[in-house]
Amino acid sequence: MALYLHLTVRFFGDRYHGSEWPPSAARLFQALVAGAKTGAPVRAWSVAHESALGWMEGLGAPDILARPGYDAHGYTIYVPNNSLDDGRSTKTSKRVAPKILAGHSPGDPDVIYRWRVPDPDVARVHLPALDELSACLRALGWGIDFAAAMTGLDEVDAAGDGLELFTPDARGGVSLRVPTGGLLTHLTECHEAFQHRISNKGVDPYTRPTRFGQARYLRARSWRPRRWIAFEMQTVEGGPFAARWDQAQTVAAWLRHAAAEALLQEELDKAWVDSFVLGHTTADDLGHRLSFVPLPSVGHQHSDGGIRRVLVVEPADASGMDAEALDLLRVKLSGRALVGEGEKKPCAVLVPPADDSKVFPFFLRSAQVWKTVTPVILHGHNAARGRISLVKTDRLLRQAFDEAGIPESLIQEITFQRAPYWPGCEAAADIRAPRHLAQWPRLHVCAEFHEPVGGPVLAGIGRHCGIGVFAGARVE
Which CATH fold would you assign to the domain 3-71+103-219? Predict the structure, then answer.
C-alpha cells in the first residue's frame, strides 16, 4: 500500500501575506531551514536534519490541500528606503495585500503538503528529523505570518474539512516553486552572501535564492482548459469563405465528417471513431467526445458573424488513444475538403490559420467574463405556467456549466437574454439546431467567474456541434 508524507501547517491568524496562495513547497522548505537555523534551534542542527532535507529535495512537487484564500482590501505603508547611500532619511511605499483564510479556526489545519514516498523504509528513517524541523517552524509567508507545523507518515491520503486540493498538472493555472536538488546548499550560500553583502566595494543586492524548480498546479473542480487545434476555411479555388452565423451546426457537421474519415484512413477502430468522433456515446458518458466548434467573426462593431474559422477541441480527461486523436487530426485535416451530407462537391477547404491575432484570441484568451456567440441550448424546459422561470433557467444553466466541466463554485453570476451580446450575431431562436435538439430552449448567456478562465468555453447540450460557444470579454 502507498505511503504518504504529510506536513501540516496551522496559522495563528486568518491573514496570509505571501505573494502566492497556497504557499509553495519551496517557500515551506525555506521556512523550515530558517526556523531550524535561527536562534536556539541551530544548536541542535545535525547531519540527520541535513540528510532529511536533501531527501525532501528529491520528492518532487507535492499535492497541496489549502484553505480557500480571498483577497482582502489592500493598503499602503511607508518604510525607510534603505537603498539610498547619501545619508538622506526618506521613506518608500510598500503595498500590502493579504489573503483572508476562509473558515480559519485555531488548531485546524490551514495547509497540508502531501508527498507519495517512493521508499517507505527511507521515509521512516527521515521522519524523526523532519518532525523536529517542523517543530522549529516559526512563520510561513512574511515574518508576521506566524505558524506551527507537524509531520507524519500515513497510508491514507491526508484530508481536511474545508480545504481545496491543488495537484501538479501541466495544464494548471497556478505556477508554484518547488524544491530541487541542491536547494539547501544554495540557501546556505545565499545566507553567507547576505551576511557579507556590505563591503568597501559597496552593497551587493543579488543575494536572494534563485535555484528553484517550477510546477503548475490545478485546483480540483476548477476549470481545466482543453487542448484544441485551429483551422481557417477557404474556397476550393483558394479564395475567402464564410458561412452564415446560423449555419454553425452545419459547419460543425462538415468538420466532424471530415475528422471521422481522416481517422478511419489510419485504420483505427471504427467503434472508437463512432463514439469519440461522431458522438455515438453511451448514455452515461455523453460528454466524452471531440467538440467541433465553428467560430463566428466577432470583436468589432462591424463584425458580420460569418464563420471563417473552426476549432477541434478534445475533452478535459482525454488520454491514451483519445489524446492521440487531436495530434493526428492536426496533420490529417490540413488541406482536407469539407463536404456536406449527400453532396459530392466540396463546400470549403481547411488550411492552417494565416493570421491568428484577430478572431481566435476572443475564443482562446483567459477572461473572467464570457458571453455566448452562439446560444446555449438548455437540457430541459425553463418555463412554468406559460412563463419563463428565472429560478429554473438559472438552475439549468448552472447544470449545463457543470456538465461542461465548469463547477458551480467557479461561477459568480449568470445573466441571459434572447438578444445577442456580440455585433454580427443574431437572436438565440434564429440558430439552426440539430433535429434532436430543436425542441429545447436556446438563450444567449453571460457568465462571470470568480477567477479568469481559459478558452475555449463551451456549454449546453449543443456544445459538441458549435452551439453554446462563448467568447471572452475584454476588461474595459
Answer: Alpha-Beta Plaits (3.30.70)
Strands (E), 247-319: 291-296, 307-313
Residue found under cell 475538403: 337
Q: 174-178 and 213-219: which strand pairing?
A: antiparallel
Work out the average pLDDT over 235-257.
91
Q: How far apart are CA 279 and CA 274, in angstroms?
A: 6
C-alpha–C-alpha distance, residues 379 and 395, integer Å: 11
Q: What is the mean pLDDT of residues 321-344?
A: 86
Is the pLDDT confidence value at 446 over 80?
yes
Is the pTM here over 0.70, yes or no? no
Residue 157: is its pLDDT beyond 80?
A: no
- Which tens digits make up the pLDDT trace of 304-330? 899 999 999 998 777 778 888 888 999
Query: What whole-number distance in Å separates Cα of residue 379 and Cα of residue 399?
Result: 9
The residues spanned by each domain of the chain are 3-71+103-219, 228-472
**Cα gap 425→244, rounded to integer Å:** 10
pLDDT digits (tens, 9 = 90+) for 5-42: 999 999 999 999 998 999 999 999 999 999 999 999 99
Q: Where are the alpha helices (DSSP H) in 146-296?
A: 183-195, 248-264, 270-272
The predicted pLDDT at position 476 comes to 46
Peptide bond before 68: cis, by omega within 30 degrees of 0? no
Sign, CA dihedral 23-27-28-34, equals negative
Helix H, strand E, coil C: the string for 53-85 is: HHHHHCCCCCEEEECCEEECCCEEEEEECCCCC
Asked whether the beta carbons of 426 and 305 are under 8 A apart, the reply is yes
Q: How far apart are CA 353 and CA 336, in angstroms?
A: 14
Task: Give 168-193 pLDDT, tens digit per residue.
Answer: 987 676 889 999 999 999 999 999 98
| Helical (H) or strand (E) element with 331 | helix 321-332
CA-to-CA separations, 268 to 356, 379, 464, in angstroms, rounded: 31, 32, 21
* Cα 112 from Cα 47, distance rounded (Å): 26
- Written as one letter, the residue type at 271 is A
Say which amino acid occupies 433.
A
Q: Inform me whether the pLDDT recorded for 72 exceeds 80.
A: no
Yes or no: say if 26 and 183 are a contact pair by the CB < 8 Å rule: yes
pLDDT attached to residue 221:
66
Asked if the bond preceding 22 is cis, omega within 30° of 0, the reply is: yes
Residue 253's nearest CA partner among 309, 293, 297, 313 is 293
Do 471 and 298 meet the contact criterion of CB atoms below 8 Å apart?
A: yes
